[in-house]
C-alpha cells in the first residue's frame, strides 16, 4: 500500500535442505552401485541392474567429475567421488577453480531438481520453498555461491534462490500449489532439470 507502483516482489532465500538431501541420495545410490557391481558376476539380471538404482549424473558429468578430481579424491564412480568432494572438511572443493567449474552446472541442475521435483506428501521437500510456494511465489532463479558462509556451504553448496511474488498471480499460484502440488517456476529452471 505504501508503494503502489511496485507489483513484483522478490526474495533471496536459503535452501536449507539441499545438501542433506543430495548427500543422502548420493550415499544411497553409491551403495546400490557398489552392491550391483558385487552381485553382477553371480546375477542373472545381466545389465538390468537394481530397480531403485538411479544415476544422478549424466555420463558426461560423471567423466568430468572423475577427470577434475583426478587422484586427489577417492571413489569407484562419479557419484561416490562427488559425495566425497562435497563431504570434504572445510569445503575444499570450493578452493579449486577446476572443481568449481565442473561442479557448478551439476549442483545447479540437482538443486533445481530438488526444489521443483522432490516432494513430501505432495508438497516441496524444502521447508523454505514450501513456505514461499504456499504463499503464491514462483521459483525464479538460482544464484551460485550467493552464500559462502560455513552454514551456506553446508546447507546448500552456497546456492541461494529467488522467489518472486507477482501480485496479479499470487492467489492463483497458491491455490494451484495447495490443490495439486504444482510448483510454478521460471523456464530457465525447468530447462536445467531437462538437461539429463
Automatic annotation (TrEMBL):
One MF term in the entry's GO annotations: malonyl-CoA decarboxylase activity
Enzyme class per UniProt: lyase
Record has Lyase as a keyword: yes
Keyword field: Lyase
BP-aspect Gene Ontology terms: acetyl-CoA biosynthetic process; fatty acid biosynthetic process; malonyl-CoA catabolic process
One GO CC term, this protein: mitochondrial matrix
EC numbers on record: 4.1.1.9
Stretches assigned to the Malonyl-CoA decarboxylase C-terminal domain: 1-166
A UniProt-annotated Pfam family: MCD
Record's keyword annotation contains Nuclease: no
PANTHER family: MALONYL-COA DECARBOXYLASE, MITOCHONDRIAL, PTHR28641
Protein name: Malonyl-CoA decarboxylase
Lineage of producing organism: Eukaryota, Viridiplantae, Streptophyta, Embryophyta, Tracheophyta
